[in-house]
Write a structure and sequence with these properties.
The protein has 152 residues and is α/β, with parallel strands linked by helices. Helix content is 13%, strand content 19%. The chain has a 5-stranded mixed sheet with strand order 2-3-4-1-5, covered by helices on one side. The longest helix has 10 residues.
């Protein structure tokens, strides 16, 4: 089974290493929201087209509250990414989740009030909590992709 996709990866510390991509090239872009955190690094992982973007810049010079998230997402959209994977390092209060575990979330709470959190202007009565933050893919393509391509 093959999936036609181009995966955008917004990597934090540890997953912003361009050496994970085969045949990589750099592309500097501009967006209506300004420049993204760094150049887009295009390449392949196990023959899957990917675009890597270092969230804090490759030299880790951008503080979390200063990341231009809107420009980052826009740049990946313009590069025709069909899916975006975003990594983050955080802890858990659940004992069964150990350091190093991969957890795929479907909701989160972001208490950083300094970051612009939407592309649209807030209208009266509009509440971002009413919107679904994640597209829930019932087909399990992500898990299947890792089983086939990345686990080997």
């Amino acid at each position: 089974m093959y999936f036609l996709c181009k995966i955008g990866i917004i990597g934090g510390t540890g997953l912003d290493d361009p050496d994970i991509l085969e045949g990589r090239t750099e592309k500097y872009v501009d967006t209506p929201y300004g420049k993204p955190s760094d150049a887009l690094i295009l390449g392949k992982i196990k023959n899957v087209d990917c675009v890597l973007l270092a969230r804090h810049g490759r030299h880790h010079t951008i503080m979390p509250s200063n990341v231009n998230y809107r420009a980052n997402i826009w740049a990946l959209k313009e590069e025709n990414c069909s899916h975006i994977l975003v990594t983050t390092a955080c802890g858990s209060l659940r004992e069964e989740i150990q350091p190093g575990d991969l957890v795929i979330i479907d909701q989160f709470i972001d208490s950083n009030s300094l970051i612009i959190q939407r592309y649209w202007e807030k209208e009266e009565g509009d509440d971002a909590s009413d919107r679904e933050l994640f597209v829930t893919d019932k087909s399990g393509w992500f898990v299947h992709l890792f089983e086939l391509d990345f686990a080997s």
